[in-house]
Design a protein that fits this description.
- Helices cover 39% and strands 15% of the residues.
- Helix 3 runs antiparallel to helix 4.
- Helix 9 links the parallel strand 8 and strand 9.
- It has a seven-stranded parallel β-sheet.
- The chain has 15 helices and 13 strands.
- The protein is α/β, with parallel strands linked by helices.
- The longest helix has 19 residues.
- The chain has two domains: 101 residues, Enolase-like, domain 1 (2-Layer Sandwich), CATH 3.30.390; 220 residues, TIM Barrel, CATH 3.20.20.
Length: 345
């Protein structure tokens, strides 16, 4: 009952369709990010082409959607790279959501939210351009802004961060993201000087080795890329400087592994931020369902509209409304998406 085809956005990605004999369709997406993901798209396609999907919906996933899909995916262990596993798992959740007439968010957590806030990524621009973007986003309800730092050097990057703070105002939430670019020997200076910006947190300022050696920080930190080594990353949950964990289901190999980590993190009293790899609409919708299942009023998801999504028909990202991701009312089952291939014909 499987049908896999390609669909292209600004960068390469693969859309997977699973279709039953009765016409129900589940969609998944694999979009490994070069330089971040461990697998290539060619490896993803080869692994999916080698699979055969032959299982009845009624008795092939006993014990509920989560339990049944978890057992099925475990049977494929070692045969799928992370983004391919995410695509298969997402398509199964979407399919079972339509079968049971339920949202994927509710299949993940029966007490899931209807909507959650999202952060806006601010590009590196002039003061006037940054002011225009931030003010427009604020009018749309954005309360959290994210700035990438570490590329230009301490003085220039923190000058941009101070400018963002001035434009956004004292009550806005500012996230700084170093993408592990700061040397462990320099991270102390960065953290000390970012204190005056009052960041919500500083995400992955340095390598995992550097974080493990860090005893204290004047500002809260978050981990993201470190989760490529989950055991080591989760050993940091008791550090006093840790505020949040950024979870990307495409990297972790699915919604269920991501949900498991999210529950561990929340059990430690820390915040969970669900984010993406600048994927396409199916993966974004899946990440949005995960965000709704673990939503908190205290922290916004990293799921704002980005350029790779704007390349697709607007109907595929209608669940994004300004600074809010919400469950679609017009299509409440599964991922809440129309069929991608029908829109692209």
């Amino acid at each position: 009952m499987a049908n896999a085809r390609h669909s292209w956005s600004i960068r390469e990605g693969l859309i997977l369709e699973l279709e039953t004999q009765t016409g129900l369709v589940g969609q998944g997406e694999a979009a490994p990010l070069p330089g971040h993901s461990v697998e290539s798209l060619d490896e993803v396609e080869a692994s999916l082409n080698a699979l055969r999907f032959e299982r009845r919906l009624d008795d092939g996933f006993p014990g509920g959607a989560k339990e049944g899909i978890s057992r099925y995916i475990s049977e494929l262990e070692g045969r799928l790279p992370p983004s391919a596993a995410f695509a298969v798992e997402t398509a199964l959740f979407d399919l079972l959501g339509h079968h049971h007439r339920a949202s994927v968010a509710d299949l993940l957590n029966a007490a899931s939210s209807v909507e959650t806030g999202t952060a806006t990524l601010v590009p590196r621009l002039s003061a006037d351009d940054m002011r225009t973007i931030v003010r427009r986003a604020s009018q749309e309800g954005t309360r959290t802004f994210k700035l990438k730092v570490g590329a230009l050097g301490l003085d220039e990057d923190l000058a941009l961060a101070r400018m963002l703070r001035e434009i956004a105002g004292p009550y806005a939430r500012i996230r700084l993201d170093g993408n592990q670019s700061i040397a462990p020997t320099d991270v102390g200076s960065w953290l000390d000087r970012s204190f005056g910006i009052d960041p919500e947190f500083f995400e992955e300022p340095t390598s995992l080795d550097g974080l493990e050696a860090l005893e204290e920080s004047p500002v809260p930190l978050a981990i993201d890329e470190s989760l490529r080594e989950p055991a080591r990353a989760l050993s940091l949950l008791d550090r006093s400087w840790l505020r949040a964990v950024v979870i990307k289901p495409m990297v972790l190999g699915g919604l269920l592994p991501a949900l498991e980590i999210a529950n561990i993190v929340r059990g430690q009293g820390l915040d969970v931020v669900v984010s993406h790899l600048f994927d396409g609409p199916v993966a974004h919708a899946a990440a949005s369902c995960l965000a709704l299942s673990v939503a908190s009023d205290e922290v916004d998801a990293g799921l704002g509209l980005h350029d790779a999504l704007r390349a697709w028909p607007q109907a595929l990202y209608a669940h994004i409304d300004g600074a809010i991701v919400r469950r679609p009312e017009a299509a409440p089952f599964g991922l809440g998406l129309p069929r991608v291939f029908e829109l692209l014909r």
